[in-house]
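Let's do one together. I've listed all components of the complex below, 922 residues spread over two lines.
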Amino acid sequence: MMTKEIINDILNKVVNSTKADQVEAVILGGDSYLTGFANNYIHRNVGESNYALSVRVAVGKKIGSASVSEFSPDAIKAVVEHAEQIVKFQKENRNFESFAKPEEETREIPETGGKKVSPNLRAEYAKRIIDEAKKFGLIASGMFQTDTTQIAVKNSLGVSRFFEFATATLKSVVMGNNSSGYSVQTAFDVKDINVDKIIEESIGVADRGRNPESIEPGKYEVILTPYALAEFIGHMSYLSLNERAVEDGTSFVAESFGKKVLGDNINLYDDGFSPKTIPLPFDFEGVPKKRVVFFEKGVAKDVVYDTLYAYKNGRASTGHSLPQPSSFSPYPMNIVMEGENSSKDEMINHVERGLYVQRFWYTNPMDPKHLLITGMTRDGLFLIENGKIVKPVKNMRFTESIITALNNCLELSKEYKTMYEMSSMTVPYARIKDFTFTSGTEF
Amino acid sequence: MQKIIESALLKAKREGASYADVRVIEREEEDISVKNGAVEGIKSTSTKGFGVRVIKDGGWGFSSSFVFTEDEAERVAGESVEIAMASSKTKIHDATIANIEVFQDKVPQPVKINPFSVTLSKKIETLLEADKLMSKQGIVVRRGSMHFSKEWKTFASSEGAYIDQERVVAGAGISVISSDGTDIQTRSYPSSFGGDYARKGYELVDEINLPENADRISSEALALLKAKPCPIGKMDIILEGSQLALQIHESVGHPTELDRVLGEEASFAGTSFLTPEKLNNFQFGSKDVNIVADATVPYALGGFAYDDEGVKAHKIYLVKEGQFIGYLNSRETSKMLNFMPMGAMRADGWNRIPIIRMTSINLEPGNKTLEELIGSVEHGILMATNKSWSIDQKRLNFQFGTEIGWEIVNGKLQDMVKNPSYSGIAYEFWRSLDGVGNESYYHVWGLPNCGKGEPRQVMQVSHGASYGRFRNVQVGVEK
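Okay, and this is what the predicted structure of the assembly comes out as:
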């Protein structure tokens, strides 16, 4: 790991080494270790230490960018010169006004805990899942990943930020002859990983899912776990909930701000400081994260901005830039969907005939503007009759609009899960009516 | 660099590793993107580092670093051994690898035009020229991009292998989104999601000729807004090469990866319906289905001289005359099942462990002209350019959407249709193939973004394809 002082020293060298109008330097990296297991043994066990220094320089409205993964004085000098060289060939970007301007951070930076985890500890967690799966005659796969990540941003306008955080993610995918189950948890500190709960959920679903039967595709009421619902919210976030998509005319909220477009119970926001997420207090331009409300009681409110889209619209960035340059920025990275008062079991009790969906897989948009998505169920699909799970069923393909589904949402749980893979999403269980399954498969 | 490699291999040996290899990679990349008449971003990236992979006590370990000192090489090798020993705590059998011929070689990749010698101005002008030609009333987003990379990779092993390889890659593409306020439609050239890629220099950009195709895709995107919806039901379809390439990728390439088949990717990517008992014993497709894994194809994005285990590039059949006869494998998985290592292990950088990846997976061309393929279709759709894709984790149930289609009635191409899609079960679909376009339509499409593995890796692969005609396929989604 690099120290904060070394990182600051590198950033200072960059910012002080150019005569460009503006300069921005970003360091993103850290140490990452992953213990992967499959077929009831550890088959992949890897570690890396990796950083990237990204430099942007601006001369007028021309911007050049370069990045490097080594940090010798010569390499740092070369990457700045390369960015300056690019500027000379660059065309003006009429939308560019400035890199991020300094602003005071008024919210408290979250505690992020976490210490380096030994390969032996990762192996012990894997072994606990494997040993338990064997007792049920099941085969365990999964991974235990422990990362320490550092993000630092400095620019010539006075922005200077540093954040270090640790994450631990334990995932279990357990398979039988004709069933499978899934569970995953991410926490700041490995001591907060509840391996018993992960074992109980993944093995429980795989055990109850043995010998699934085929049922006819069609419209079903569904209980979506947070894993499944997060797939929908993830697609919505990059396809719709950012100013880039709004300006492109590809977002369904583009003409609907202030209008009710989703169900009364849909409250969705992004908040990099929320303890419900894996917090990230500033973005990759160094702008503090603002709380952005996307939907309040189903009414479209706002979307996220980076400096490019904010300044040209005469407003402040909401702190949602990805590492620049990026065709996908701005992007929400700490989404929270508020739940209601039900429990998962109560929601199942309320279903007369429907399906319990553990997880969706390989979801992709067929019609991005109307958020028509297709994908498969995976790792657990169960028929519910008269308020009880009665039997496992074979996986099916769904083809459904997220907009329609979130207008048909009957109930949300107070329980939620947080999924994390670079960005974080915290969502509850959902009960949704008239959900469309369009075909089946052989398992 | 020699000393880094020697230090790492020596340390691994001293720590008791039964096998070790080192990969040193130095890579430069340049990405240029324009959007709506402005340069969205130009980024130059360089990365350099090394990774050490070992077997110790029958377990695998891997670690990597960007710090090029002998001390760091020893630290990384030591950490790899420590990780391998932790792996061995759960082992069921000792990790072993098949014997191979050990090579010392140096393989440069000559290109006609070094892409890094072409000025940024020329690259930007080409993209902006295409952008201008795409500009029309009703076109809301115009995009263009180019990507160039060059890489030197050194592979050395405790068995005595020492291989240097150069890799130069170019890619380019344009796309538009049209909108009438309610509907949006997309058209791309030469393919969607970034265009086409190959192991070539800047000559690829000249060959693709983005400006020449800019006006056409723009007009097609506008026409699609007014086109009738694609009909729904069982009918024949003809897939154009770039869509057929993705069909090959998802329903042939992935299910023949032996690590998936053996459950090693179950945690993320999934498994496969092509289980070992089906090898040489399963009708995967019709007799027209001849599919090879061929890393020796010149210029193919999925090609190379040696894989990341030092195995020389091979061409093997995965499917021959419809019979399933081959897997993509590694030295470890080939030893498990007593196969010949065919060289499919690759990592996407110095900080990643090699896993089984597609090389160039190609459907061999047939003998039909496009007119002949269309001529015997009573009612069907010609579909082109991928828009969406989805397939189950065993690679059986798939659903693809394309940007554009044309209805075929009584052997004649008719009106343009919008939002075409088709679905099916992989082997049933390939069994319905009854005509493949001839060599004149054949092209090896480069796909730069195949995701797999934990930690996640993005690999460059390719797929040769012509036109393919499939009978009685589900088109569209039944309500």
